[in-house]
Amino acid sequence: MLSAALGFVAGIGWLQRQAALPGWAVLAVATLAGVLLVLIASRSGAGKLGAGFRFAGWAFLGVAWAGGFAQVRLADALDPALEGRDVEVTGVVAGLPQPIDRGVRFTFDVDAPATGIPRRVLLAWYNGLAPEDFQDIAPLRAGERWRFTMRLRRPHGLANPHGFDYEAWLLEQGIRATGYVRPGGARRLDLLVMRPGYLVERLRERLRERFWDALDTAPYAGVLVALAIGEQRAIDPAQWQVFASTGISHLMSISGLHVTMLAGLAAWLTLTLWRRSERLMLRVPGQKAAAVGGFLGALAYCLVSGFAVPAQRTLDMVGIVALAFWFDRASAPSRVLALALLLVLLLDPWAVMAPGFWLSFAAVALIFYVTQSRPRPEGWLWQWGRVQG
User: Fold this and answer.
1) Nearest-CA neighbor of 135 among 217, 230, 224?
2) % the chain with pLDDT above 70
């Protein structure tokens, strides 16, 4: 399993660094080669030869998967003939609206997109609302359906070496056009679209409003919002400069530690309540119920926090461990990490380009290595000290 996961990462990483995207014919050949090599590996046993074939096969599959993902995403493009023209589009506010100077910025999912209009766009609505008034007068909310008259353009960003690639970030987020709402061209159609993703975003918005109402103008309000729902844009730019200067910027993002703590708390609470019922204990062992409760707690927190890569990785590992508990199967740490790696890249092949992806998995692998060392008289305290060191 580890060789398969590493091969998949290598294939995706190689493709992401190419200057041109392979066509569908090349991707089909890569898929066929990958399947054949994986079949050969299954017949070659568990030795080095089998591991080599498995690595190569999954590398080809990684190239095919990431290439197909990119081809589909790039095909969802804005028609150049519509660029800079007024178009009337109906859709749903897909994410948390962000206050900006004299307006609001938000992602917008287009309903039944017409020819030449991407499925998701990033819009700015300059309605004269100041950022400090946003929490009192929200011009629109997540999950609402609107009809806008807008002007769109294809994604563009600066191409400075070693700088932030805004265009690549938009591609990863599935945003295939940016634009702004024309004055007088906005009409609300529905207060809430009843779909799971939009309901989660509305919940995140309500939580953000609760923080704003409770903390008002407190300087740490943005930090608490970022740690609770993963909304890092709530932190003031001046605070980000302080965090960057002191080297603690990474502490402002949802990490695996946060998800693990919530999962552990949910597992403990589930086990405590489960043990109070003799009937439940006879039907399902408490450890299995606790594993399911821990996974559901981790899933709920990941949904609220926006599903960042560290949260995805931790949720995948918690889910794999929960399955191992449920089916009474022991799961080695390397297998858990490899399966989590595969799941993250299946959902987001562009994750390999993020430094947090490598730091996250490397940190967990190091923790697994340290905690699997020979037991010492000090027990868990010794292991904790080694991890911190």
Assistant:
1) 217
2) 89
